Amino acid sequence: MITKEEIVEILKGVTHPESGQNLIESGILQGVDIEGNKVVLTLNFRRKRDPFAKSVATRAKMAVDAACEDAEVEVVSHEGEDAPKPREHEGVARVKNIIAVASGKGGVGKSTVTANIAVELHKAGYSVGVLDADIYGPSQPKLFGVEDYAPWAEKYDGLDYIIPAESNGIKINSIGFYINPGDALIWRGPMATNALKQLINQTLWGELDFLLIDMPPGTGDVQIAVAENLHLTGALIVSTPQQVAVADVVRGMKMFSTKGVEVPVLGVVENMAFFTPAELPDHRYYIFGRGGARIMAENEGVDFLGEIPLIQSIAENSDNGTPVALGSAEEEKYYAEVCRKIVEKVAKRC
Ligand code: ADP
């Protein structure tokens, strides 16, 4: 008799005409049950009244029929709201809160903020994962010291799931594990979107209180696709005080309120807000201007969640793969404060 694994292999040859993805990549195949010579394929079409549902189901049945003549094949299809809940080990099914960390432009410290907030959440007793979706500069592997991690897969119900890396109790999966740094810029459009969808849906996150998504900077199709494909609890926006960064950030923030995305913005974090030299601990130098992100947050009617100063040890610890929030140095308290506000906002459901 045919095995589940063989059926999954066969169904990799059946694609949905619209997305061009096979039944496994697209997540349409929900289950394969074999009892005696009876094979039941459960398909789940996300869209209600999917015009291709019937033809896809027929082709799936025919493919399995052809490979195993003595099997009696039945296909059960669900569509839209009637679809069953995802199986419990599937992708983000058991993640309670998914937060996108976004910025209008690169280099403002979005990844550093993501890593340190993840550490603070973990210190506060939550189970935490980080998905590094920044195709233009994936830096979470370096920030957490797991650059050498080689992702591997485990099978559940005949489907492959990626086992994330783990550092200081935080689960990490990054697009950086799969691409060479030099190739990042050619990853655009559908190719990047599909790879990110796969990372989202095929990582074995397990049960998590928080999954932080280090988003690619900007507001293109890739960013929108990531936001649309996840049931985000909210978005955290990172900006420096400079006007140019602030203007980009407003655009980035507006993306979350566009139709189809509609994600609440938890608030704005101002990174590199000021600089205090060690020998003058009472002085604050506002080298990138003062309070730009706070003013922008007020103007846009979103909460201001705090300032993170420009501190050499933040950059150094990032380079060493030990986010500064792991320690108890003075700078840790800034991240702890932002983390406290995030938890508060999420508890109130944004
Ligand atoms: P992004 O993810 O927005 O591209 P990164 O988090 O990679 O930005 O940060 C860009 C650079 O700035 C990194 O070298 C990082 O170590 C440094 N950096 C970020 N935040 C701070 C800070 N508050 N103080 C000092 N250096 C910082």
Report on the architecture of this protein:
The chain contains 10 helices and 13 strands. It folds into 2 domains: 4-79, 2-Layer Sandwich (GMP Synthetase, Chain A, domain 3), CATH 3.30.300.130; 95-349, 3-Layer(aba) Sandwich (Rossmann fold). The model has no long low-confidence stretch (mean pLDDT 88). The protein has helices spanning 4-11, 53-67, 110-123, 140-143, 189-202, 221-229, 243-255, 292-300, 312-320, 332-347, and strands at 29-35, 38-45, 72-79, 95-102, 128-132, 152-156, 159-163, 165-167, 170-174, 208-214, 234-239, 265-275, 304-310. The chain has an 8-stranded mixed β-sheet with strand order 8-9-5-10-4-11-12-13, sandwiched between helices. A 3-stranded mixed β-sheet has the order 1-2-3, covered by helices on one side. A two-stranded antiparallel sheet has the order 6-7. Strand 6 (152-156) and strand 7 (159-163) form a beta hairpin. The protein has 350 residues and is an alpha/beta fold. Helix 3 (110-123) packs across helix 10 (332-347) and helix 5 (189-202) packs parallel to helix 6 (221-229). The site of adenosine-5'-diphosphate (ADP) has 18 residues, from helix 3, strand 12, strand 13 and helix 9.
Outline:
This protein is of the alpha/beta class. Helix content is 32%, strand content 24%. The longest helix is centred in the C-terminal third of the chain and has 16 residues.
Looking at CATH, the homologous superfamily of the largest domain is P-loop containing nucleotide triphosphate hydrolases
Number of domains: 2
In total, the number of strands is: 13
List the total number of helices: 10
Largest sheet data: 8 strands, mixed
Give the mean pLDDT: 88
Helix content: 25-40%
Q: Which strand-content bin applies to the residues?
A: 15-25%
Overall outline = elongated
Q: CATH class of the largest domain, please?
A: Alpha Beta
Distance separating the two termini? 52 Å
Query: Which architecture of the largest domain does the CATH hierarchy give at level 2?
Result: 3-Layer(aba) Sandwich
Low-confidence regions: none
The molecules bound to the chains, other than polymers, are: adenosine-5'-diphosphate
Structural class: alpha/beta
Which value, in Å, is the CA radius of gyration? 22 Å
What is the CATH topology of the largest domain? Rossmann fold
Q: Helix and strand string, N-terminal first?
A: HEEHEEHEHEEEEHEHEHEHEHH
Strand order of the largest sheet: 8-9-5-10-4-11-12-13
